[in-house]
Each structure stands twice: as C-alpha cells, then as structure tokens.
Amino acid sequence: MKTLVKTFTAALIAVSTCTMAAEKPEKGMLxxxxxxxxxxxxxxxxxxxxxxxxxxxxxxxxxxxxxxxxGKTNSRSEVIAFLKKQxxxxxxxxxxxxxxxxxxDYMIAKVTMQFEDFTKTDLVTLVNEGGSWKxxxxxxxxx
Length: 143
Known about the structure:
The chain contains four helices and six strands; from the N terminus they run αααββαββββ. The protein has helices at residues 2-23, 35-48, 54-57, 76-85; strands at 58-66, 72-75, 94-102, 106-114, 119-129, 132-142. Strands 2-1-6-5-4-3 form a six-stranded mixed beta sheet. Strand 1 and strand 2 form a beta hairpin. It is globular, with a radius of gyration of 20 Å.
C-alpha cells in the first residue's frame, strides 16, 4: 500500500510540474490567453520598450491610425519595426487603462498616456483569435 501511495504521489507531482511548465510562456513569447493580459502586454510594449514576442501581439490585419491634421495610417509591419527599434526605451508618462467594452471575442480599451506637455489617447481593439488575444486596431489622438 505504501508503494502505491508513493507512486500516486510521484505521478501527481509530475503531472503538476508539467502543467505549470506548460503554462509558462517560452522565452520571447507573450502570454495572451486573456484580453487583460493582452492589453497589459500592449501597454508594456508601447510604454516600456518590451519588444520580445511583439509579433504575436498584433493580428495579421492590424493597423494603426494617427488622428490629426496630417492623419497617417501605419501597417502591422511598420509598427513592429518601429517598436523593435524602441527596445528598452521607457516613456516618461503615467498610463491609465479604461475598458470600454468587452465580450468573449473582443475588447475595446482606452489607453491614456499622460506626458508632461501632452496626452496621448489610444483606442485599442483586441480580438480573440483561437484562444489567443491579438490587437487588431489602434487609433491614436493627441491633446
């Protein structure tokens, strides 16, 4: 009986260890299993220069629109290239995230970055693509 208990305990520990290891993201990979993790990753990428795994954060149809007199639209590849160049660069701003709407398949969040002389507001749309949350659209404005 003692052998059976020891074997069962060892098997339970092995299964628990494998489960915990499976939940850890690989180095350079973002964990995007929930909308909240995805929006937090987006803010880290934008404000703290966290560029590891940035490709998986943005959906294949991602676009960034910058509102203003000379409005501009940036493609997914342009934004990713820019963010990789900004690796490690931390923005000197206070950040606030406000969830505007959420469902099982999408989230709209308002990210406000308060700098010393201006405020950047970023409306971010996230979608659930097969269990992984991706940023599909970003609209920026400045005050």
